[in-house]
Amino acid sequence: MWGGLQPGLPGVHNNEKKKSMYSVVEVCHLPTGEWAQKPTTGDPPLGVKGYAAAVIRNEIFFFGGWCGHYGCYHNSLYSFNVDTFNWKELSPTTSHHGPMMKAYSSMIAIKVNEEDYLVVIGGQGQFSNNTPPQPGAQYSNVGDYQHCNEVHMYRLKTGEWTSPTVTGDRPPPIRTFTLTSITNTTAILFGGDIGRYSNDIYVLEFTDTSVKCKEFSNPGVSVLWPKGRSAHSSVLINCSSGPHLLVVGGNEEDCWLLNINKMEWKELTNIPDSVTDRYGHSLSVWNETQTTHWIIEFGGWRDGSKMSDTSFIEIISSTGDLVVQSVLDINEYQKRRIQDAVGKWMEEGSVDLTVTRVNMLGAPGAGKTCSQLLLLNEAPPTNNTSTPIACPAVRATRVAVCDKTIWNRRIWTQFHSKRNQKSLSCL
């Protein structure tokens, strides 16, 4: 996680304090729920709020954003490598070409003919001193600002911005909406500010030179359909019954699930207000298994106050339907992960941990038991001879001390001589 409107952000274009504040990223290790701050190298983007982001393999791409002082918007494009934690500027901010200098647009990654592209749609920027209008796009003035329905594509191979041909039901000038990939060449746009709060859906189909738009609006009558909203968040959940769009929060304090194949909405009423009552927040999905999906929510705004909490929504899809299994705050989630690991240990006799040191507590010079060999990932003995300390109780300590710590705790394992009998407690 990077950027956002943080306390103490200098109201300047750039200085050392701003660079220092935004030269770190926050990393949540999902198997444990532990947050850690990591330094980065290279120069981070200046558009720190309202930027758009998309992922291609091990790189996160950041477009545009608001600079932190009045009227300063960007149309720069940066990449961030999650292996090296290094920033790289791909396209600088300029008023001469490319997308409008703007914030509150959305960006996705597409892949056409085995080639990667980024697509940027909509957004808000300054009315004056901006890039030339895109042919075919529309712009609506709102005070000193303008909203747009521009559609630009960035070809990674050549580093060029292009303007695709847009056909069908093109969305109006729009900002603070969500754009979510369905497949390599399709995406779904929902909601946003179009001069009013929209609840329209647009399904977009891309080629390397074109985009076809199809609109789905509330048919009314007795059909379930969410109210119009802005500054919400959404993620895609794939299950055996097809792709689903999960929408959380915005100016409406609720949560909805869309079956994309059927275009049918369902309101999830068992999500607490602590999760739904916010806007401008981040939302991510972790598919732990084919049927267990964790939705991670962080930050945002509530009643004019910035939020800094993390929530975890567990959704199960084992029956084809998506069912909310639990909603946990970060402390509850961390406790749950430990309990799950303990359960796996007791059931299977093993659990995925990072082991960097094993302390043997037994008679000096004694050999290793099978249990200790298991801890060290070493091969079992080739004969059946017991070691001098293979009875009544040998204790070993797993201590994870490397940077890639999976469990930042001490886990004591008590092994008894009786086959398959073991106990485990966490400190």
TrEMBL record:
It comes from the Eukaryota. Pfam families: Kelch_1 (PF01344), Kelch_KLHDC2_KLHL20_DRC7 (PF24681). Keywords: Kelch repeat, Repeat. The keyword Protein biosynthesis does not apply. The keyword Repeat applies. This is Uncharacterized protein. It comes from Amphimedon queenslandica (Sponge). The lineage of its organism: Eukaryota, Metazoa, Porifera, Demospongiae, Heteroscleromorpha.
